[in-house]
Amino acid sequence: MTFKTPTRLGLAGLAAIVFALCLCFVAFDVAFAEMAQAPAAAAPAAAPAAAEPTVNKGDTAWMLSATVLVLLMTIPGLALFYGGLVRQKNMLSVLMWVFYSVCIVTVIWCLFGYSMAFTGGSTPFVGGLSKAFLAGVTPDSKAATFTVGANIPELVYVCFQMTFAAITPALIVGALVERMKFSAMALFLPLWLLLVYCPIAHMVWYWAGPDAIDAAAKALAAAADGAAKTAAQAKLDEVNADSGLVFQWGAIDFAGGTVVHINSGIAGFVGCLLLGKRLGFGKELMPPHSLTLNMVGAALLWVGWFGFNAGSNLEANGGAALAMINSFVATAAAALSWMFAEWMVKGKPSLLGALSGCVAGLVAVTPAAGYAGPMGALVLGLVVGVVCLFFCTAIKNALGYDDALDVFGVHCIGGIVGAIGTGILVNPMFGGAGIIDYAAIPPKVADYDLVTQVIAQCKGVATTLVWSGVGSLILFTVVNMLVGLRAPVEKEREGLDITDHGERAYTM
């Protein structure tokens, strides 16, 4: 009875918190809209309407396929990758946690998450609720891509971003396995999605889009006199300001180095510190129960990651091809660098090391996939394999924390290497694609400044670390007060499969 009562209180608390958040956002949107009415009334007459953006069937078909590939990354890819790494008595609990993450995020994303991440007009920190419950999102509504005049159906974009939102909290699971209660995880993940993931996604990825910037730039170019130019410039500034905080700084993240990997990695690190070490950690061996399943999961992750990275181009063109080749090259290089470094240090190359390097390479190339050239991606992979190996062994052993499946060492550290490295490798001198200036007519690759770009990347990394680290600390503390974070000693010793779910992964 002592377990069930606080669990009911926790679920009730979750419902109350979500309801209160909704009321706050609605109130803020209403207030902001009222404040914006006066300037809007004084806006200059609109310039002639630009051509209506079109939807290409090939782009749509590619994005539908990419969305399914990203889902494949999580279920069954991540579930099997994590599941194979834990002990047999906890295999089913890991599968359940990952599957639950996909289901709960899917529902919350359609209710509030998409609107909080990808609408503007409120603050540079988080979107509003203008598209809560997918209001106004229809089969005919469109979402911008990275090409002026080229759109995709907004429902496809909703689904694509939903799969990113689903895998990110699921990644946190790896740091907390084998000792956290399912009831605690069931409370933490939806709260973390709303209060940590959605704001970070908004800050890093939200912008008005190329069509809006191009139209405002053309209106400025067409302005005939001083007053008209002043009004047109103000409109262009307004369009540029309709973006997330990190985006305004000029930081770039092609597919989620900050939003997905650093975000989840630091959250997992905070969680494992609060939970404490597993029973017997450092005193008894805790080997993976199935490296075979681990290999299957890693292979599915690599395959699905092409949807993750190449799909983030939002179009089926050369940009997607660049993201694809980079996702091949960086991943293979990181797997090899981890394997050979481990071979030199420990005397034997391990499958687990090669698979860990594979994931580290995928993590690092995620922010750089559409920006770096293939040789830049190769160098990035070689570097991140060694760096992540060092953090998952020497640093982890020196500090003594129990990040069970190395979420911090691979995802957070790999994400940091990739995010900062992207600021360097985007340089066209190094074979990078450069950054497009959509205010130019026609849009062109902007001038590159190494120091400015790397500083912007570091600011984006620091913002993610602070927001996610502090936010996760608060949420873990709240959940601990409501239901408790850690399973009792006897249940942890028996295994969470039976004690939390009443089932076993294997019956033979």
Can you offer a commentary on this structure?
This protein has helices at residues 4-41, 57-85, 91-118, 154-176, 182-205, 210-222, 226-241, 245-249, 257-275, 291-309, 318-346, 351-365, 374-399, 407-425, 450-482, 489-494, 496-501, and strands at 54-55, 142-144, 150-153, 436-437, 444-445. The chain has 508 residues and is mainly alpha-helical. α1 packs parallel to α5, α3 (91-118) runs parallel beside α5 and α14 (407-425) runs antiparallel to α15 (450-482). Residues 1-13 and 15-47 have low confidence and may be disordered.
Short description:
The protein has 508 residues and is mainly alpha-helical.
- Based on secondary structure, the structural category is mainly alpha
Mean pLDDT: 91
Distance between the termini: 32 Å
- Identify the strand order in the major beta sheet: 1-3-2
Order of helices and strands: HEHHEEHHHHHHHHHHHEEHHH
Q: What descriptors fit this protein?
A:
three-stranded mixed sheet; globular; single chain; two-stranded antiparallel sheet; 508 residues; 69% helix
Topology readout:
Blueprint: H1 4-41, E1 54-55, H2 57-85, H3 91-118, E2 142-144, E3 150-153, H4 154-176, H5 182-205, H6 210-222, H7 226-241, H8 245-249, H9 257-275, H10 291-309, H11 318-346, H12 351-365, H13 374-399, H14 407-425, E4 436-437, E5 444-445, H15 450-482, H16 489-494, H17 496-501
Helix pairs in contact: 1-5, 2-3, 2-4, 2-10, 3-4, 3-5, 4-5, 4-9, 5-9, 5-15, 6-7, 9-14, 9-15, 10-11, 10-12, 11-12, 11-13, 12-13, 12-14, 13-14, 14-15
